[in-house]
Amino acid sequence: MNAKQALNSVRAPDEQAAEERAWDAVRSAYQERKPRVRRRGLGGPAAVLSATLAVAGVAALSPAGATVGHLVGRALRTKVALKKAVRAPVRAQALVTDETQNRLLVADLPSGRIVRSVSVPADPEDIAASGNGGVIIVVSSRAGEVTILSRDTLKVLKTFAGFEQPHIVATSPDGVYAYVTDDARGTLTVIRLTDMRITSTVSVGVGAHHLGFSPNERTIWVALGENATQITALSTVTSRPPGTPRTDLGHPRVVGHFAPGFPAHDLAFSPDGRAIWVTSASGPDVTAFDARSHRVLFHVEVGPPPQHLDFQGRYAYLTSGYGSTIEKVDAATGRVVARASAPYGSFELSAADGFVVTTSLLRGTLAVYTPGLKLLHVARLAPEAREVAISRP
């Protein structure tokens, strides 16, 4: 119902003439302001001010005019409020797996306040989000299931069963595919998120655990275990030059293996794809290798193993959970730019949307930092807060 229809439903006796004078006054006010509105409608401040002044004049015409003024004023305020609501930005949030209580938690940033919670299959260990407003992938190791949820509603879209011990999930850079490692089966399973179908399952080696995807979507590395002495390399390339290399992200194939020279834990490609960083399961350093030649580029000392890492822009963020440390490192040189304390047991991390967050498996906390590692807030979310990812609905 528009404003004039609302007036018709509440018209008092002898009010018609006053009502018509009121609408004439309002229309005249709009006509006077029309050249300055520039087709932006009623939402501009000048138009609202003009209409408000007109309403004030209408109210003075008669008691009937006061009724008109009240309803028109309310209509104007309602429309402005709706426009403001539409323009309100959606805040970044942290998605956290509550492993012991089998929940997926959604916490606002930077407050860390839990705003939503949903039950998931037993032992949710890892999580990934396919960009903002896409889907969430939760890996439940003990249940042997992978759950796909809508990022917006948190409703379950599909559950994939039949895994033995799924552990880590990562999405392709384009957000179209999810890749899930299964430690017990030694496999990498590829799920196409556009139609929720498994496109392939590849044998990569027993202990398949952490994995990293090159930015150009051509290479995947999978660490064989949490203390991996071997890393399996896979390729998505289906044709070679002289033509432009073509890729099939749904069907990667094993192309080789790499021994890092130390027990490896986590790994990730640098944003430019030229290096792959490998964390240690036995020492204090994270090592950057040339992605092609496998030559050591540099070491970064972080703290007691195992370390975890994430990239944002030209920086790497590294954690040592047992060392209660988080570092910001120049991805090109390995130089430590900033260092801060973190709650004990803060292994996992995520860096995006102007925040860096860590979750503590041993304290159940979410720690929120600025990109420069200034601590903003620490919130206790659960008995054990394992994995974390930053995204928007």
Proportion of β residues? 35-45%
Treating each run of at least 4 consecutive H or I residues as one helix, how many helices? 4
Write down the overall geometry: globular
Strand segment count: 30
CATH topology of the largest domain: Methylamine Dehydrogenase, Chain H
The CATH class name of the largest domain reads Mainly Beta
Question: What is the CA-CA span between the terminal residues?
Answer: 31 Å
What is the alpha-carbon Rg in Å?
28 Å
Average pLDDT number: 85
| CATH arch. level architecture of the largest domain | 7 Propeller
Query: What structural class do the secondary elements suggest?
Result: alpha+beta
Q: If strands are numbered along the chain, what order do they take across the biggest sheet?
A: 3-2-1-30
Low-confidence stretches at least 5 residues in length (pLDDT < 50)? 1-13, 25-68, 78-85
Give the number of domains: 2
Key attributes of the depicted protein:
18% helix; disordered N terminus; alpha+beta; 393 residues; 2 domains; four-stranded antiparallel sheet; Methylamine Dehydrogenase, Chain H
Tell me what the structure shows.
- A four-stranded antiparallel sheet has the order 3-2-1-30, with no helix packed on it. It has a four-stranded antiparallel sheet with strand order 4-5-6-7, with no helix packed on it.
- The protein has 393 residues and is of the alpha+beta class.
- Helix 2 (16-37) runs antiparallel to helix 3, helix 2 (16-37) runs parallel beside helix 4 (63-87) and helix 3 (45-59) runs antiparallel to helix 4 (63-87).
- The longest helix has 25 residues, at 63-87.
- The protein contains four helices and 30 strands.
- It has two domains: 3-87; 93-391, Methylamine Dehydrogenase, Chain H (7 Propeller), CATH 2.130.10.
- The model is unreliable at 1-13, 25-68 and 78-85 (pLDDT under 50).
